[in-house]
């Protein structure tokens, strides 16, 4: 018997076939390799690929920053830096610490200029930052809010640079009108330091809105005014007293005394985890009043309408939030 005949009589020889190779699949962007046999399908994400993308994105971001390959507008707004660095840090407070809820975001137009007017409180201007995050995260068009800040903000060396990079500018009518005419959302807090520096006993009571300069800026550009009520900022640093002599010595509007500051030192700067709620009210049109931008009665009446709208919305939100530190 020959060797071939002997091999053919062995059991299983006639039925034996090599398995076929499965389809090739890429691995981490390398040359595709065949599966032999094909591996079972996996539902969990590829952790290695996810971190590869994050590291690659971070390195590309640093390369663009070092090479100066990024855009900054005439006011100093750095959109890439804001979306990549500022917003991710603020979202920790917005989502995890303050557990923010947003209502009425549909009242903010998808395109075009607008004036967002809110109540101001909380010792530090965290309400302005949380409002900016709310518009970027909750609005379908992920809109950016161009905040108007006091002169004091832009006199502090490091703070002024950060504010400019985040899109803020000095609170003056020419800048506000230019931004709104360019289709930007402009945020203003007419209470100013009177709002964020008021004592805890006066919480959620709106202070005077000044001379209504924000209204005249909206009238000249014909942009709608969207009142916004913010509940939660009053409890993060409850002001029990204001040391005015020390404030004058330091050249600041007020020196707050809270349950944690200055007693705990730097730890006193950690905000209390109050529950936040933000309500966007229906917009107030101004396109039909452009010719009355210099009429003090029209400006005053419209400013008073905005103030009353915000005050009523604050009462409504406080009824929805019975516990200031609840979920």
Strand order of the largest sheet: 3-11-8-4-7-5-6
List SSEs in N-to-C order. Answer: HEEHHEEHEHEHEHHEEHEEH
Tell me the radius of gyration.
29 Å
Tertiary shape: globular
The overall pLDDT average reads 87
Enumerate the spans where pLDDT stays under 50 for 5 or more consecutive residues: none
Kindly give the count of domains: 2
- Percentage of residues in helical conformation: 25-40%
Assembly level: single chain
Structural class: alpha/beta
Helices, by number, come to: 10
Would you kindly provide a written description of the structure presented here, covering whatever features stand out?
- The protein is an alpha/beta fold and 327 residues long.
- The chain has two domains: 31 residues; 208 residues, no CATH class.
- Helices cover 37% and strands 12% of the residues.
- The protein is built from ten helices and eleven strands.
- The strands form three sheets. Strands 3-11-8-4-7-5-6 form a seven-stranded mixed beta sheet, sandwiched between helices.
- The chain is globular.
Would you summarize the structure shown here?
With 327 residues, the protein is of the alpha/beta class.
